Amino acid sequence: MSLSDAFIDENGKRVVRLFEEILSDLPAGVAVLEARRALDGSGTIVSLTPSCKTAATFTAHTDDRLNLIDIGMGYTTFELPWEGGLPNDASFDLLLERAKEMCLAVVAGRCEHRFGFLGIRGTIRVDETKTYRVTDYFHLRLNPKVVRYAPYNPAQSE
């Protein structure tokens, strides 16, 4: 990682530890972990970048002043607690649990983007009963398409 623990707040450190735990369960070389301060210095950004070019990058951003986590999956952003189906007053522990299950689903390749005429819809399927979706509007596209992402570990099959 490119960031000293001295510059990360406690919530940022917890997100880094979560990503380290997830990375440690993967085969060597399938992903790279990076942590850094946000450009404006307001929080921590942690990214898991797959070596497989057809897999989606997974990113978490914490803000030093707020109890929230922004989850980035490819082209879309899920704001926790709201777009994770959690109450507004959800604890940071609960936000971390939701971020973990979403990250594990992306690592397993259970995610996609639908590029429509006016927007992009990101979908993360945690299991048969739990799916998270977010739509970012005003991304104009003449030719709609669906991109389904591969797992981080090429040997893993769904």
Summarize the structure.
The protein is α+β, with helices and mostly antiparallel strands. The protein is built from two helices and nine strands. Strand 3 (58-63) and strand 4 (69-73) form a beta hairpin.
Question: What can you see in these coordinates?
Answer:
By secondary structure, the chain is an alpha+beta fold. The protein has one domain. The chain is 20% helix and 34% strand. It has two helices and nine strands. It has helices at residues 10-24, 92-107; strands at 31-37, 43-50, 58-63, 69-73, 76-80, 111-115, 119-125, 131-137, 145-148. The strands form two sheets. The chain has a five-stranded antiparallel sheet with strand order 1-2-3-4-5, with helices on one face. Strand 6 and strand 7 (119-125) form a beta hairpin. Helix 1 runs parallel beside helix 2. The chain is globular, with a radius of gyration of 15 Å. The two termini are 30 Å apart. The model has no long low-confidence stretch (mean pLDDT 90).
User: Could you give the count of β-strands?
Assistant: 9
- The parts where pLDDT drops under 50 for at least 5 residues are none
Span between termini: 30 Å
What is the average per-residue confidence, as pLDDT, rounded to a whole number?
Answer: 90
**Rg calculated over all Cα atoms:** 15 Å
Shape designation: globular
Order of helices and strands: HEEEEEHEEEE
Query: Strand order within the widest sheet?
Result: 1-2-3-4-5
SS element count, helices: 2
- Largest sheet entry: 5 strands, antiparallel
